[in-house]
Design a protein that fits this description.
Strand content: 25-35%
Number of strands: 8
CATH class of one domain: Alpha Beta
Distance between the termini: 19 Å
Strand order of the largest sheet: 2-5-1-6
CATH superfamily of one domain: P-loop containing nucleotide triphosphate hydrolases
Number of helices: 3
CATH architecture of one domain: 3-Layer(aba) Sandwich
Largest sheet: 4 strands, parallel
Shape: globular
Order of helices and strands: EHEEEHEEEEH
Amino acid sequence: MRRVLITGMSVTGKSTVLRRLAELGYRVIDTDEGGFTVSVQSASGTERLWREDRIQAILSAFIDADVMFVSGTCRNQVRFYPQFDRIVLLSAPASVLGRPAGHAHKQSVRHKAGGSRGDAALRRDRRAPTSECCHVGA
């Protein structure tokens, strides 16, 4: 099984991409939900970190899927990078980051996971809301 991390700042479309991948039948894990994070105090205030035991459990589990997409952004995610086959970083222009997620527009992002079902091109057109223009396909 291939593991793909989809990461990026807030309002770049991680959840939208994950929802679309799930609609297409891919196995997805959104670490923003389901108890995968814990709030901790840091020098800059409260921050969320991945619960490393939970993340390790999903990355180690045998899952009957060709590709598993994991989404999230936490400071300690770097510890898990070696366990991902691909890391997709979503970004957006600064002028977009203050908009609601459904209206965020971004540049094209391409990811090739391999295999007939795993070939994925994730593209968001700057002219349309994310929910209308996220495409997955060869």
